[in-house]
Amino acid sequence: MELLEQCKEWNDNEEYKKVVDALEILPENARTPEMDSELARAYNNLGEPGDYKMFGQALRLLLPYEEYFRGNHRYYFRVAYSYFYLDEHGLALHYFKQALDARPGDEDTIDMMNECVNRLTDGVVEVSMSQKLDFFWKDTQEEIRKYDKNSKDYQAKVADITADGIRDIFQKINVNILSDGRILELEAGDDKSNVFMLEYIKDTVPDTLRKLFDIKVGISPKENIKDIMIYEDEEYDISELRFFVSDDRQIIIYADEFDIPLEVIEQLFIDIFGEIDLMANDFEFDIADEDDFNAPTEDTCKIVLDYNEKEDFLKECVDYNGLRDRAKSKGFRLGTSAKEYLKMYSGYQLQSIEEDIREDIYIGTTCLPSLISEYISSGPFDIMPIMDELYRNGVMAGFFCFSIEGGELTNSSLEYEFEIMNIRNQLMEYILNELDKLGKTKDIAFLEGATGKICGYLDFLIFGSFMDIMNAACEFFEEKNIKLAGYKTFRKISKLVTFKEE
Question: What is the pLDDT of residues 176-229, one digit of tens each?
């Protein structure tokens, strides 16, 4: 019997350790995709709930072969199974749906999908970010006490211990140690949701550690930027680049021959502006070269087309050293702190075409537009990167909804909109007052809300104290003249959890 067939038989007979012993001794390049799939199956079955190591090993074996196993029910089921026991229920649901598409009607798959939906509906994360940080800060303080405060390397050790712990909690984010360990700089990454999480980490630092170092959210701009930038071991000269900043905050980057990767430009912008200012301004940029003046095409940006001569355009450009000052003169909002950025709101309007929860919205305001956009554009079984990242880090993203009494109030009535806003504000105040009694007001971030034809909405991120928050909301609505009240997570597939229904 060939090894692959033997491994399948061992897996069928629940002799999973034999599969691991037989396949792990082979070099990786000696194993076929089918062998790695059987090895992953064995790891999945050897794993116990809460023991992430086995399921993580299974997933690392499976993910490189998604194209190879396209349309294969067993493959999708094994990937989904790994994600499920890694408490990644959104990703698990996505792959269970793929498995069901490959084998319609499969009862095991349907059962697992229903379990995913139930877990995504209640929104209760396995371990909240608040709990993770409570354990982390306690362990960190105990670890630091082992070191002599008078030691010359004490500050460096304190910084290393703390930075390593933050990286473990929030694996997507890097931590830079600056000023001989007196500043920890948390890289904000590519979405505002990360900034919410990092600010929460910063806010929970114990007083004993605040005396030792300062935490900054977002990469700060650099004072001295070199002419040469390195990307993937290649050197790129940025000294010849020229930058045009329009009155509507668009930046055109010009070079006679443009051969610099976008990754280098993106890093240059971070060096010049810093991460938070980049996010806060959310400007557009385009690229131009000499050909855009000599032989413009449909891809040539309009600003360049407004100039007959390249020299006239270049007179209004600056090099990278002058870009920050020029941007400021054109209305860029520079020097924004992370906390200030989190309080920046955007309004949105939708065509309300459905009479269902969250589908009835016609106007809203949010300080986390990417989350709203992801929810609106996603399908029930789609991968949702922002939601999945929040969930992975122990943060529940959702909204309260409520339908008020009074048939005379319609969505065209200012009175109706005022009443929705009034209840929303009262709900926020009530929840914060209840959390204040527990010293946990930072465990929720309100993202503003929306008004729909049938409901009003209040959006939130919950970092901890989930049941305290839900109990407070339930108590609030019990005292109000409300027809319907409940909460829902920002996933189309999740169901409404009701507090009150008449």
Answer: 999 999 999 999 998 999 999 999 999 999 999 999 999 999 999 998 899 999
Cα 239 from Cα 288, distance rounded (Å): 16
What the block records as the tokens of 238 is 């940025």
Has residue 335 been placed in a domain? no
Last residue of a domain, one of 192, 217, 242: 217
Kindly report each contact of residues 413-422 with a partner whose C-beta sits within 8 Å and lies 24 or more positions away, as own/partner: 416/451, 417/363, 417/451, 420/451, 420/456, 421/451, 421/456
CA 502 to chain CA centroid, nearest Å: 36
CA dist., res. 400 & res. 478, Å (int): 14
pLDDT tens digits for range 13-64 = 988 898 888 888 988 788 899 999 999 999 999 998 888 899 999 999 999 9
In a domain, 72, yes or no: yes
Structure tokens at 59: 């997933």
Question: Which residues in 184-213 are b (16+ Cβ under 10 Å) and which e?
Answer: bbbbbbebbbbbbbbbbbbebbeeeeeebb
Q: Domain range spanning residue 88?
A: 3-122
**pTM: predicted TM-score of the whole model, two decimal places:** 0.91
User: What are 471's two structure tokens?
Assistant: 């109990």
